[in-house]
Amino acid sequence: MRNKLFRKKSIEKLVQESENSSNPLKKVLSVKDLTFMGIAAVVGAGIFSTIGSAAYNGGPGVSLLFIITAVTCGFTALCYAEFASRIPVSGSAYTYSYVAFGEIAAWIIGWALILEYSIGNIVVAISWSSYFNNLLVHLLNIHLPDWMIIDPMTAKNAFLESTQALKDPTILTAKQIKSYQFAINAYNSAPEIGGTKIFFNLPAFIIVALITWLAYIGIKESKKSANFMVYFKVAVIIFVIVAGAFFVDTNNWRPFLPNGFEGVLKGVSAVFYAYIGFDAISTMAEETKNPQRDMPRGMIYSLLICTGLYILIALTLTGIEHYSHFNNVTDPLAFVFEDRAPWIEKIVSISAVVATTSVLLVFQIGQPRIWMSMSRDGLLPKQFQKIHPKYQTPSFATIVTGIIVGIGALFIESDLVTDLTSIGTLFAFILVSGGVLFLPPKIKEKGKFHLPYINGKFIIPLLFALFVYIFRERAMAAFTEFHWNNTEEVLFLVFLVFAASISVLTFLRNYSFIPIMGVLMCSYMMVEIPLVSWMWFLVWMAVGLLIYFLYGYRNSKLNQEN
């Protein structure tokens, strides 16, 4: 059974299957299109929404976290680029894991990618709804019923928090009182059925339906839409940075780390979420004109551009408004201009709607192509690999993705899903980074990307020793005050043991520096994600394994061939 669980697909077979497809996908994407797709996916809900909570926890120092996260993603992006240059087929980390680790790992990573794309898009749709509603109110003076633009759990929590906070309004600002009163009024005005308050997010559902239709009718139409949206939102972000510079008060940058480095690390999930998306490019390999050359470039270019924009916008926001004012702010870019320059707030709201729309589009394109690849391998029913004869898109998989994201956006709370999305993506990044170490040697060819080999024999152990020294107080406390209920420190100890093991193996086997750093940095970022998200992630993985053993294990194409 062990051999069957870890049966692998060869690179040659994957490429041959893709080339011999009776109904192939359209090859229309260039390196410029891929770069724009990457920016379209990355610059969205993270910079327009979750950056607020990260700034509240980390203060101006959150800009450092953007750099750390960018470096982490950079190591992973190079590993993705190596795989993409070798395996020019759809499937992303799922397909790469099938080659490097075998079938069971491929299934697990494919299941985790549903968290990144389908479940992650729920957060994006909710963020889109928030900005769209803000646009309706301030630009068109249209007010949707409050119970029609929020999920049940968020509405209930906001009501309870607001009721408690307003018991002593003397310590609150006028903005906070207004926000809390809005939450209470929204809850009280909601209709009831059988004593239960009714809440759902209708705008989020509608945008998912529209984007699913666009992804359904063709990659060429999707490409044109994404390119236009990228031009617009990047122009607006640059404008916000320039305009915001006139309102910056450098006193707001002191202290730079108000809650220490630990406060900065609390924003890991939110900031990492802002980078999710550059890997979605790898799902479009079969629609790229020259995937071995253009896909690596598209990933790296988009990551570099987005990192520069993120650092500048983080410093601008925390310079305009004191970090402590970003608590529970879901639209930070609009928030900082609300009283200072309302006309800029309107431009930001329009841009946010466009930005989050482009993210939705790229993720709605990515998820069906992963399911298509899994179906080709027999791990999912054949309907998922069905290609529309006219539009040449995975039609059934696209519709299923739209249904899952649409229903989730109606009712699910965004905070939990953000952490879940981050943990699923980091898990995928770890396997892709580690998988490079198991690839066979290749002959260098001109025009193709080649991951440089840097011997990590001494560098990795030295960096691990430096890490232990920097976090020596936390490490000592974790050992001396060990308790199973202290889950954060238990996870930290697990990471230390894992990192020590990897350092020893790297010293003994001369592993390459870049993939090992990708594995270690993504592993550490997973440790900083709250335990509740880990619990839901493990439940999600258990459900996935159950489906695999009930269906995929027996119906696998490799199993049929054997």
Provide a descriptive summary of the structure in words.
The chain has 562 residues and is mainly alpha-helical. It has three domains: 349 residues, Amino acid/polyamine transporter I; 46 residues; 103 residues, no CATH class. It has 24 helices and two strands. It has a two-stranded antiparallel sheet. α6 runs antiparallel to α7. The longest helix is centred in the N-terminal third of the chain and has 37 residues. It is globular and about 70 Å long.
Lay out the secondary structure.
Layout: H1 2-5, H2 11-19, H3 31-42, H4 45-58, H5 62-86, H6 92-100, H7 103-139, H8 152-165, H9 174-188, E1 192-193, E2 196-197, H10 202-217, H11 219-244, H12 260-265, H13 268-275, H14 291-320, H15 332-335, H16 342-376, H17 395-411, H18 414-435, H19 459-470, H20 472-480, H21 487-509, H22 513-527, H23 531-555, H24 557-561
Antiparallel strand pairs: 1-2
Helix pairs in contact: 3-11, 3-14, 3-16, 4-13, 5-13, 5-14, 5-18, 5-22, 6-7, 6-18, 7-10, 7-16, 7-17, 7-18, 7-23, 8-9, 10-16, 10-17, 11-14, 11-16, 13-18, 16-17, 18-22, 18-23, 19-21, 20-21, 21-22
The proportion of residues in beta strands is under 5%
| Rg on CA atoms, Å | 23 Å
What overall form do the CA principal axes indicate? globular
How many H/I helical runs? 24
What does the largest sheet look like?
Answer: 2 strands, antiparallel
What's the CATH class of the largest domain, please?
Mainly Alpha
Structural class by secondary-structure content: mainly alpha
The run of helices and strands is HHHHHHHHHEEHHHHHHHHHHHHHHH
**What is the averaged pLDDT score?**
82
CATH fold descriptor of the largest domain:
Amino acid/polyamine transporter I
Which percent range fits the helix content?
55-70%
Measure the end-to-end span: 13 Å
Instruction: Name the CATH architecture of the largest domain.
Output: Up-down Bundle
User: Can you tell me the number of structural domains?
Assistant: 3
